Amino acid sequence: MRGADPRVVLGLHRSRHERRLLTGSLDLGVTALDTSSNYLGFRSHQVLARVADDLLPEFTLSTKVGYFPGPDRAEHSLDPVRLSAAVEQAVKELGREPDLVFLHNPEHTLEGGTLHDRDVLAHACAALDGAAAKGLCGAWGVASWDPSPLVDLIDVALPQPSVLMVRAGLLVGAKTLDAADAFAAAWGLGSDRVWGMSPFGGSTQAPVWDRINPGVFLRDGDRLSRSQAAFRVAYGLPQVGTVAVGTDEPAHLGELVGALTSQVDERAVREYRDLIRARSRGQPA
To answer: Model's pTM, two decimal places?
Structure first.
């Protein structure tokens, strides 16, 4: 059954944060913007406020907390006091309350799957839930590059996020795809409340995109470029309602938006997932 129309979020990971990108995004009707406290060398919020303070009210804005500047490199922390302070700092730097704040890659700290980890996750979620209750953000979510270590830590006692963000696309492995599905199911969230990220696995220029044809996973993929098809297929691997994608070129963003009218061939996607799952388990294809 076809879900709601797919949504696009402009992601600022690796972005130069140029004003022309933001104005171009608005011209295309892409009015959701995603960043993080640690993007652009922990300067993303300040740069956005400086170059586009008049544009930010036109966007639905999400950011992430969990990484902090360290003496040599960024450090990760789920300490609820630091997380709460990070949300407050984001509000000050952006000059507005974010519509959504993600807990950023909690698995970076939670790798043991112990009862202690469950308590740590619970306190971290409570910190963001409390920030939303105070009006410091509209809602909160969890963004996870690899949710596998988190699935068994989730129970009904945890505050429930509004949105989850996970990796999506043809370059995501079977284990991570299955974990993403289990992650959403554990929270009781449907695909309309799950976002995908990194749909190209890092770059549309990677050699892999010259060797495969993502259009075979679409009902009308022959009318799209390979990058357009790969982007559209990402909405089905895993099933998500929104994809955050990064670019510095409004023209590229426009091409991706143009792919949204195409439809994913759900049967082809299911067969593909069965195939890569079998291969990951060492079973015959």
So the answer is: 0.94
